[in-house]
Write a structure and sequence with these properties.
The chain is an alpha/beta fold and 339 residues long. It has 15 helices and ten strands. Helix 2 links the parallel strand 1 (25-30) and strand 2.
């Protein structure tokens, strides 16, 4: 009898261990593109025993994939580097609302979807950089980039890039489409070269002398300060100045990285646990220390590299207003001949 019970128990234990093993997974569809995130994910696994399977790509590709996979999608969490794709995924029914007191309390309301389909976990400011030697009077606003003073001096990413689309969308929300059409056309007229490369390449363009003024997210410059860059010397970096634009009116444009739980998430509890982990003190500190971003949770300390950039006035526009203007932004950029 004892033996039979032991055997039965053994079977039960084995079966529940198997179930637990199957459940200890999380499928992460991510358009974050930072090698330092490795530690963010491994710490979650250390804390919870949940293994993360990462599928990376640009947000539009991941959205298309989730849509094509439908109810059979293995996606648990969708992470992006912009709100617009989170709003789009929400509109397409690809994200489910998450009921979490922890997320509700820790993430400020302006950094989460009204219906809890997504939450932002980090912020970055998209600002202006310039060559301190060559540019005596740097642009002080996004509008200044259109000034004839800067003809042949400006380097910015392509119109297919989400950061470019988002800032154009934010400007449309503030200034209207006609004004931003004129702005975009004039900025294209000031290009130092056809749009190319990522944000770091815009900064490298200043170092190489090809660009005098560039637009980049704050974290690319802070990262170069913190760990160096193989194409920019310490002197090169010291010669790059920066301006948080529009400090007297709308404030500096912010973009966020955030995520939500997929509608058909097979590991829903793990997905929610992961989002709650991203809002934890430990993960929030790492967004700054590991990737030079601004934490979303108020009161979390900044990495020294980020603090070096200084205090500024952010644009506090509702993120939904940016999302609503992205289609108009794409139209404006295309009309302007912004490659
Ligand atoms: Fe980026």
């Amino acid at each position: 009898m004892t033996r039979i019970i032991a055997v039965l128990l053994g079977t039960t234990i084995a079966a529940s261990a198997l179930t637990a093993a199957e459940a200890q997974e999380l499928n992460l569809y991510s358009s974050r593109h930072y090698d330092t995130d490795e530690r963010l994910y491994s710490e979650f696994t250390d804390l919870t025993g949940i293994t993360i399977n990462r599928i990376e790509g640009n947000a539009d590709e991941l959205i298309a994939r989730m849509e094509a996979e439908g109810e059979n999608s293995p996606a648990d969490v969708f992470l992006t580097v912009d709100t617009v794709r989170l709003a789009r995924a929400t509109d397409m029914g690809l994200l489910q609302p998450v009921d979490s007191d922890l997320l509700e309390q820790r993430i400020p309301s302006y950094l989460q979807d009204d219906d809890n389909h997504w939450f932002a976990f980090s912020q970055r400011s998209r600002i202006l950089f310039y060559d301190r030697t060559d540019v005596e009077n740097p642009p002080m606003s996004y509008q200044d980039l259109a000034s004839p003073d800067y003809e042949g001096m400006v380097c910015i990413r392509s119109s297919s890039n989400v950061y470019t689309q988002n800032i154009a969308a934010a400007l449309i929300a503030h200034l209207g489409q006609d004004a931003v059409q004129d702005w975009a056309t004039a900025v294209v007229g000031n290009f130092a070269r056809d749009p190319q490369g990522g944000d770091t390449d815009q900064l490298r363009g200043i170092a190489s002398g090809e660009c005098d003024i560039a637009m980049s997210n704050t974290y690319y410059y802070a990262r170069a300060l913190r760990r160096g860059d193989d194409q920019m010397s310490a002197d090169d970096l010291a010669n790059i100045g920066w301006v948080f634009p529009n400090q007297n009116d709308i404030g500096a444009h912010m973009n966020v990285s955030g995520g939500g739980v997929a509608t058909h998430a097979p590991n829903r509890d793990n997905a929610i646990a992961f989002l709650e982990y991203l809002a934890s003190e430990q993960a929030q500190e790492y967004f700054s220390a590991g990737n030079d971003e601004y934490p979303a949770v108020p009161g979390v300390g900044l990495a020294p590299s980020v603090a070096t950039l200084g205090i500024f006035r952010p644009d506090t526009i509702d993120l939904a207003d940016i999302a609503d203007n992205v289609d108009a932004a794409v139209e404006v950029l295309n009309n302007a001949g912004w490659e």
